[in-house]
Specification:
Layout lengths: L5 H9 L24 E4 L5 H6 L6 H10 L3 H4 L5 E3 L22 H11 L6 E5 L1 H8 L7 H6 L8 E4 L7 H6 L2 H18 L1
Parallel strand pairs: 1-2, 1-3, 3-4
This protein binds iron/sulfur cluster.
């Protein structure tokens, strides 16, 4: 049987109910993709605001991420430019301290490779956070995300690992100034090239 095209696959994802009953709400998959996209951004999972909006990165993490990428909202939400495919498509719920739970572990093995197969024009995959980095780099990733990000050049030109842009990582960003000095200019250069 032929593999489904991207539109069929996106419809299947939006109808997915694999985790129904495992989360305190109905599944609401959030994904943005088009065959023409040259950049793929693999994030973590929606938080409460994204779950409510149904649109990726409609939160302070998104503001910081767009600043890192030096991209305006129109381009960020243009699926022909940027595919946004998180490790977990649905908001997983909150832990006892009010933080987001990890992405549902059922999601990535089920969907990531199938979506990637339908994005033939991708030249750069941005791996945002530890879950995306571990999944896509496997044994090529270092033990810590910090070291993996520091060694970003090793994964070029296909991948560029990044920390999560959450406000929770503000202390990490202060502690690791090389990220702003070396990695962000590299990232912005690749973005400019691929969006032009
Ligand atoms: S998190 Fe992924 S696997 Fe689970 S219901 Fe949502 S789309 Fe399906």
């Amino acid at each position: 049987m032929a593999a489904p095209d991207l539109d069929t696959l996106l419809a299947d994802i939006r109808a997915c109910r694999v985790c129904a009953g495992e989360m305190p709400h109905e599944p609401r998959p959030v994904i943005q993709a088009h065959r023409d996209a040259r950049i793929l951004l693999v994030g973590q999972a929606p938080g409460t605001r994204v779950h409510a909006s149904g649109k990726p990165f409609t939160d302070p993490s998104g503001d910081r991420l767009r600043d890192w990428l030096q991209i305006d909202e129109a381009s960020f939400y243009d699926p022909t430019k940027l595919a946004i495919v998180p490790m977990g498509f649905c908001f997983p719920g909150l832990d006892a301290k009010g933080g987001d739970l990890p992405p549902r572990r059922e999601c990535a093995p089920l969907w990531q490779a199938r979506v990637r197969e339908n994005l033939p024009n991708v030249r750069l995959t941005l791996l945002v956070g530890q879950y995306a980095t571990r999944f896509w780099l496997g044994s090529r990733a270092h033990k810590t995300l910090t070291e993996t990000v520091r060694q970003a050049e090793r994964y070029a030109p296909d991948f560029l690992p990044l920390p999560h842009p959450s406000w929770r990582n503000s202390a990490w960003l202060r502690k690791n100034p090389w990220f702003g000095e070396i990695i962000l200019p590299m990232l912005r250069c690749r973005m400019k090239d691929l969006l032009s």
